[in-house]
Amino acid sequence: MHETLIEPLQSSLTADKLVIVPHGPLHYLPFAALYDGADFMLEQYSLRVLPSASVMAYLKTPQRSGQTTMLALGNPALGDPALDLPGAQNEVRALSNVVPDTVVAVRERATESLFKRYAARVPVLHIASHGEFNPEEPLSSRLLLVGDESNDGSLTVGELYDLELNSELVTLSACQTGLGDVQSGDDVIGLTRGFLFAGAANIVASLWMVDDEATARLMVNLYNNLQNQDKQQSLRNAQLSVKNNYQAHPYYWAAFQLTGSGR
């Protein structure tokens, strides 16, 4: 894939930051994991992705308001032990030590209603839960949270289109959250596009079912990096940390990609 897609452009790639707008099935390709025989692209560039050029019309600079810096939801109680994510629970609690003024909600408190209550007024939203991609009905793709009398706990793409966010970053530390259905106009309908349309400037999301421990490590590194780096460089350095200090195989670090402005 590197030989086909990247080598013909190599002489033109003089910057260390790249913006990639994939076409067709390339939306599902982890570009950071492309390998030239010596290095992964991750080791050469910091990357961000746009699902289509039309998304640029939605990107905006969020305005900070209020005292809460981040809402972090983790390991919601979904009524099935097979869906428990203890690493995600530890992850969001660890992040509260990195990001000041964080509201942490785990297990029964990680509700869809809490998300909607904070969504419009928090600059950073972090959801460490399961995501489901529905290729037959992309607008029904969803994040699984806890339901209550007001919301059923299934946060769908369709619902995201009705929200107004003011987020500089939404992190979906979950399974298959970055996937969408490639439409005839080469646009993507999925959770990432839903959050962009709702007003998020940047989304970090995964392309496949991720490793719990590796993801927790990556996320702590990401938020530490964000203290003095932009979104694009922060994700790259977090991925490099997992690759160099935990597991070198791309399965453990290449699932996550940044979509949005990069700032």
TrEMBL record:
InterPro entries xref list: CHAT_dom
Any single Pfam family the record assigns to this protein: CHAT
CHAT domain boundaries: 2-261
Lineage: superkingdom: Bacteria
UniProt protein name: CHAT domain-containing protein
